[in-house]
Amino acid sequence: MADARVPFLDLRALNEPFRPAIREALDRVMDSGYYLLGEEVAAFEGRFARYCGCAAAIGVANGLDALTLVLRGWKELGQLSDGDEVIVPANTYIATLLAISASGLVPVPVDPDADSFNLDADGVRRALTARTRVVLPVHLYGRMVDMPAIMSLAQEHGLLVLEDAAQAHGATCEGQRAGSWGHAAGFSFYPGKVLGALGDAGAVTTSDPELAGVVRCLANYGSSEKYIFPVKGSNSRMDELQAAILNIKLNELEQHLTGRRAAALAYQQGIANSALKLPTGVLDEHAWHLYVVRCRERERLREHLTREGIGCLIHYPLPPHRQGAYADLSTRVLPITERLSESVLSLPIYPGVDSQSVIDACNRFSGAAWSE
Ligand SMILES: *Cc1c(COP(=O)(O)O)cnc(C)c1O
């Protein structure tokens, strides 16, 4: 992949401009003598909460933990119990389901809308049972779910809403950012995400002070104050160094998103090939974590682009219910999810990507015209 003419993602190059500031931050953190639960994390939490439009953010170890800690927090608060059902899009990354399973809850995967790739209110409505307690929409590829529709359905049925915003830093819906729509949200700062650390990190956002308190406690061994443990927690903390790096990169996030949107616009305008179905949605609301096209002859397209030196990947080749880990879900009938997994292909997208080479390579592909 590294020798592709247009790499799918070159994290080293993307992080290079931050090197001087990161060096300075490393010195600052070393000199402070505080490597956990210090000022860098506190500063990042405050700034990220404000950025998302939430009352609170809690820095945690990774995105999977962020989602898990919210669900466990709701259990501690008596809002959920073992065996409760959580509705989740079937075409998500497996971590979304793992968070549910790890919390003693039951994932109920539902087919997404094939056009937006996202969970929609009708799909949720069809999957409701007497045990449904949570809806877990995933802003897949950086495009936000239709949150007003999800929130009003949730209100109607008394459900909690947890946004999986791992791919959607800075994405908006009706002018309001991801992470501020649901009762809580989980973010990942895995290096390849829209806002990425130089290692693992994650955050919970919420405007519920009670939940924020419990999540903070659970992420620090269940400690409410030093050596006092009201609940059985875990160790899931963001470290000072990652927080310092995220503080630096958060300054540039809007500019970074502008670069991704410029690449998406170039693709929307430049790719003219009936074999490829381009993504839909409002360009400027999307965080464009991934630019995902669909093709009936996906494998041929992948081989063609690889030959042309264009890095591309499949997100995701095998949905969770087809994995060994979720053999218990293998009999679910999820035709849209199956079709998506067979037809999606992600093109390179990041600020400064050589979009013209990608466009030319896509336009040189000849294959069967797209049809659903
Ligand atoms: C990356 C990702 C996660 C997990 O985040 P980690 O920080 O890798 O644990 C969860 N959900 C989705 C949709 C993701 O893309």
TrEMBL record:
Cited InterPro entries: DegT/StrS_aminotransferase (IPR000653), PyrdxlP-dep_Trfase (IPR015424), PyrdxlP-dep_Trfase_major (IPR015421), PyrdxlP-dep_Trfase_small (IPR015422)
GO molecular function, one term: transaminase activity
Alphabetized UniProt keyword annotations: Aminotransferase, Pyridoxal phosphate, Transferase
One of the GO biological process terms: polysaccharide biosynthetic process
N6-(pyridoxal phosphate)lysine modification, residue list: 193
Location of the active site: 193 (proton acceptor)
Claim: Membrane is one of the keywords in the record: no
Pfam families, per database record: DegT_DnrJ_EryC1 (PF01041)
Family statement: Belongs to the DegT/DnrJ/EryC1 family.
Protein name, per record: Aminotransferase
Lineage: Bacteria, Pseudomonadati, Pseudomonadota, Gammaproteobacteria, Pseudomonadales
